[in-house]
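Please fill in the sequence for the structure shown.

STRUCTURE ENCODING:
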């Protein structure tokens, strides 16, 4: 159980009288995890799709008191998982409050010379104690550019000039890991770490001591060390030295959502109810929605996102992960879906603000803005993409995603019958800045078979119906049943 104290102790005598017990950081996390498991508490927040795969492996690694490597492609919540291990630490732990001690030394078992001198020579009621909170006991570092001195330490020239011996503890300037004594340290992108630093790390993992410039200075460093890596680079020969791999206790394999619904759940978690500027005003269409009024001046438009638009956005990421044109070793991050989702919402808001429509409803034509939010997030396979540009690859991926989702709706609603309309010479113009009333007027001149389009998302709202029309048209085009031409941001569909 996490130690709870009504009033924090301020000196060593009070601490001893309080009943506080010293634990290693791994034992502390182990005990608190067990308590949470027994109480049935939530262990990790905002983690979707890992309940039966990743999370049980993390629990076992924690209970085994292992250092861990999180192995997975980009955008698989590796950093989020590592940061949440802080929640298994005690709310705060005591340390010797002395300006000359560079770490948070344990009052019962100090590892620094200065700490031992204070505990052994100063009366207990005069040894000052402060408290180190759990949020401060975690630090992480990105491997590229990281030097030995950054995370292990270095000889301090100023101290040498003052007459301190190089082989003495007092001559050292501590790096991040010694300063995280009794805490958690995470190293992101391990394969990019310099080999010299890797050597220093496996010495810490194995012996828990520090050796700088050939001078062994023994410290019983107490730290949980976490790593993250991409499988392609981690498994490449020579990127990570074998001795370091051998000393990592557990490898936690992460993955992308196994099905589209889980990906949509992540979208809704990350955008709908979190940092989107209009907060919880992003809604799911109501089948009984009435025709919407105009937006009063200065009022922010509400946003309705048809479910098929969420399916399309997530399917684009899934199609990209399958694409032969995109580097599978790099992966396609969930951030692609999140950025694209924000983009279609932003495009819908712009249209609603300019045209004075309520609600703002994303359409297929809003996908034209995906170049801004997608390019740079896709790494092309140089062998598979040949001479294709990133923009052309994205176009191919979006077309595949539209065809996939549309095919599912065709099976459900028989939407292919709508293609017969175009054999009569009907042309339909769409665009991201056309008002919803434009679509309503167009449909007055075409057969009732168009009613099938509105089975996709039942609603009487003109803006939702306009989104349905664009989805069906884009699906017919993606499945080669109609053609389209494009000019000045407008798209015209015809047979």
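FILLED IN BY: designer on duty
SEQUENCE:
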């Amino acid at each position: 159980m996490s130690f709870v104290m009504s009033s924090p102790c301020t000196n060593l005598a009070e601490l001893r009288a309080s009943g506080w017990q010293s634990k290693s950081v791994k034992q502390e996390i182990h005990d608190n995890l067990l308590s949470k498991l027994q109480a049935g508490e939530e262990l990790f927040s905002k983690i979707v799709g890992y309940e039966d795969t990743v999370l049980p492996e993390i629990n076992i690694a924690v209970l085994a008191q292992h250092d861990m490597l999180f192995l997975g492609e980009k955008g698989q919540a590796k950093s989020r998982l590592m940061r949440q291990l802080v929640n298994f630490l005690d709310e705060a732990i005591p340390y010797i409050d002395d300006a000359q001690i560079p770490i948070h030394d344990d009052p019962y078992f100090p590892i620094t010379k200065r700490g031992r001198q204070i505990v052994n020579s100063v009366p207990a009621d005069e040894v000052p104690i402060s408290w180190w909170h759990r949020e401060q006991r975690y630090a992480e570092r990105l491997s590229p550019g990281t030097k030995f001195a950054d995370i292990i330490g270095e000889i301090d020239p100023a101290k040498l000039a003052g007459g301190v011996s190089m082989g003495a503890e007092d001559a050292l300037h501590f790096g991040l890991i010694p300063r995280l004594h009794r805490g958690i340290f995470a190293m992101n992108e391990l394969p990019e770490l310099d080999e010299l630093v890797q050597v220093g790390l496996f010495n810490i993992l194995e012996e828990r001591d520090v050796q700088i410039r050939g001078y062994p200075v023994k410290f019983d460093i107490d730290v949980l060390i976490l790593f993250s890596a991409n499988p392609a680079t981690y498994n490449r020969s020579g990127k990570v030295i074998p001795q370091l791999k051998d000393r990592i206790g557990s490898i936690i394999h992460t993955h992308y959502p196994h099905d589209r619904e889980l990906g949509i759940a992540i979208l809704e978690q990350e955008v709908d109810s979190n940092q989107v500027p209009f907060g919880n005003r992003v809604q799911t269409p109501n089948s009984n929605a009435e025709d919407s009024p105009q937006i009063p001046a200065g009022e922010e438009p509400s946003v309705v996102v048809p479910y098929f638009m969420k399916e399309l956005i997530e399917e684009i990421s899934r199609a990209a992960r399958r694409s032969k044109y995109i580097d599978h070793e790099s992966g396609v991050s969930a951030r692609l879906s999140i950025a694209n989702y924000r983009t279609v919402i932003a495009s819908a808001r712009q249209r609603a603000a300019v045209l004075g429509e309520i609600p703002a409803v994303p359409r297929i034509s809003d996908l034209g803005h995906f170049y801004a939010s997608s390019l740079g997030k896709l790494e092309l396979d140089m062998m598979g993409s040949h001479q294709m540009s990133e923009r052309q690859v994205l176009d191919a991926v979006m077309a595949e995603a539209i065809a996939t989702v549309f095919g599912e709706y065709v099976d459900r609603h028989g939407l292919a019958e709508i293609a017969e309309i175009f054999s009569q010479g009907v042309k339909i113009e769409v665009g991201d800045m056309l008002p919803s009333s434009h679509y309503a007027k167009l449909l007055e001149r075409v057969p009732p078979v168009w009613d099938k389009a509105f089975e996709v998302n039942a609603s009487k709202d003109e803006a939702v119906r306009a989104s349905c029309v664009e989805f069906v048209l884009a699906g017919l085009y993606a499945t080669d049943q109609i053609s389209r031409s494009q000019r000045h941001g407008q798209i015209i569909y015809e047979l």
